[in-house]
Each structure stands twice: as C-alpha cells, then as structure tokens.
Amino acid sequence: MTNNFPKIKVVGCSRITFAYFAQTDTKLQTLAIENDETILQRLLLTNFIDEYLVAHYTLTITLDEASSKIKERVEDFIEYFGGEDCTYLALLDITPFPNNLPLAKVHLITNQSSGHTIDELSALWGNTVTWDITPFEDLLAAYTLGLQSVKTGYSDYMFMNNLQQPKTLYNGKAFAYLDKDDIRNCDWEHTYQFFDPYYGKIYAYEYVNI
Questions:
Q1: Which of 108, 113, 153, 201 is 20 to 30 A removed from 56 (C-alpha atoms)?
Q2: Distance between CA 123 and CA 191 in Å, rounded?
C-alpha cells in the first residue's frame, strides 16, 4: 500500500515560512509556482526582511554598459561598500526610461554603508546614483519588475554576495522543523490552495512572525 498523504515541502525565509502539502506518492520538488520571481522573493525575504525599511540604491547605467560591462561595473562599485565582506543583491533593470533615453538602472541593497555622500557615490559610479529608504513590499515590487525586464534578453543581470539561502526541507524533516521552532504558533497565518499540473491540489500555508 502506498503512503501518499501527506507530502510536505517547507521553505524557511527568516520571519516567513512557506509550507506546501499535497496528497501524492511523489516527493514535492519544484512546484509550478516556483519561478524566477519566487526565488528572488525568497532571497529578499531571507536576507533583508528583518529590516522593514531597507536602504535601496538606484544606479543609472547606459544600455551599452548594461549589455557588456555590467558585472565588472557592479563588482568595482561594491568595493566602496566593503568588497568581499559586503552582503548585497544587485539587479539590472532595463524598464524604459522617460523619453526613451538609452539608459538602464541597477537596483542595489546591501548591509553595509559606504561612508560616502550620494554625490560622491555618483562620481565613483560615473553616473547618477540615488537612494531612499524603501518599505519591503515596494522593494520587492521594484526587483520583480526589474527581473521581468531582463530575464529573456540578458545573461548577466543579477549579482549577489554572502546571501543566505532559504531553508528547504521535505516530509519528516519538514514536520520536525515546523515543530522544533514552533513556527505554526506564529503572529499571522495565511492559507490558500492552488493546482499544480504535476502534483495536483496543493494546500499552502504562510507562517509569519513579526
């Protein structure tokens, strides 16, 4: 007799844990909803959600540089924030500029301060640099839009260093993880269902600790 209920996959992202249950005899691997945008969201949640307001830099770059020198430019600029010791996530965004100017931008969030003024950073970057304190939801929206703009036409568009990866566990280890840290006794819980073309009906839970 096949033991086909329940199978569970848990993805732990700092204060938010995602749990997926399905009645299947197959281990839950990659779900249909787990696309590039989902992976990006989980990276942001795992590394930057502990601060609700995040310092978000926007670096202007020409489209020519975006297609040929973007990795080199970002790595050189990060040296002003601590280089290899710096935790950061940078993403190219080619969403069209006003008046169709031949420009793109790079979103950058990091756990380090450069010690430079914004004018000094603009001079070091060689183009306009701006920054603001961004609520997490707005940050996620900006990064998602940027990802959608580049993922079909560029090979180099996301750059990161020292980021923690979400914890992904299955079945017995997943149940133990939920019980050990008392994750289901959380501040807020969201439940929903969706259909996966391979695994069938999925029962999804989001456990949030504020």
A1: 153
A2: 48
The rounded distance, in Å, linking the Cα atoms of 23 and 200 is 8
Q: Where are the beta strands (DSSP E) in 52-87?
A: 53-62
Residue holding tokens 């501040």? Answer: 187
Assign 3 a pLDDT band (cuts: 50, 70, 90). Answer: low
Give the span between the Cα atoms of 153 and 16, in whole angstroms. Answer: 32
Residue 21 contacts by C-beta under 8 Å, 6 or more apart in sequence?
6, 7, 8, 202, 203, 204, 205
pTM: 0.86
- What is the amino acid identity at position 63? L
Instruction: Tell whether the model's pLDDT for residue 200 goes beyond 60.
Output: yes
List the one residue out of 107, 136, 145, 124 whose CA is nearest residue 44.
136
| The pLDDT of residue 1 | 37
